[in-house]
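Quick board copy: two proteins, each given as sequence then tokens.
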Amino acid sequence: MDVIERIKSTVESQPIVLFMKGTPQFPMCGFSSRTAQALKAVGASFHSVNVLEDPEIRANLPRYSNWPTFPQLFIHGELIGGCDITLELYESGELERLVQDTQKA
């Protein structure tokens, strides 16, 4: 399976996927840390992918998503965005609604 297929499979098989630098427990950059914290704050159960451990995903995810930076948050297979967008959604209450929708499905 090529790397684009692996990314697609991950994004489509999990309701919430966060591609990040590091892990939720040990984030390796501030943006990844803040994004994971926002998800935890709304009670999200999410799958994370450490792009530092998978150079192929790190190199190809921006091509797959048309988004150049990390972290990248996907909900229901759709790119939501990075840290800034996730934090804006969190502050507006929209992130919590999106997360609750995944738990109903």
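And the next:
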Amino acid sequence: MARKHHKPEEIVAKLRQVEVLLAQGKSAAEAVRTIGVTEQTYYRWRSEYGGLKLDQVKWLKQLEQGNGRLRKAVADLTLEKLVLKEAASGNW
């Protein structure tokens, strides 16, 4: 079965839907089945996105993307530095 990648906005909406269903007295298993994900996925989403508002989720994802770009830049610069250091020492 193919995996579906949910957008952060969809995740927040589904978490709110589960909260409503739980408040209506449904069990966690029934509520999670209603939104179409496994319990494990629900609890993972809840730990990551629980209590966040939509604008906060968008901001978090932007930060994660920026952080990834910065990590790649640092890795590239570190590799360049090591190559230059080795070339300067004459061990090649």
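Board note added afterward: The two ends are 50 Å apart (CA to CA).
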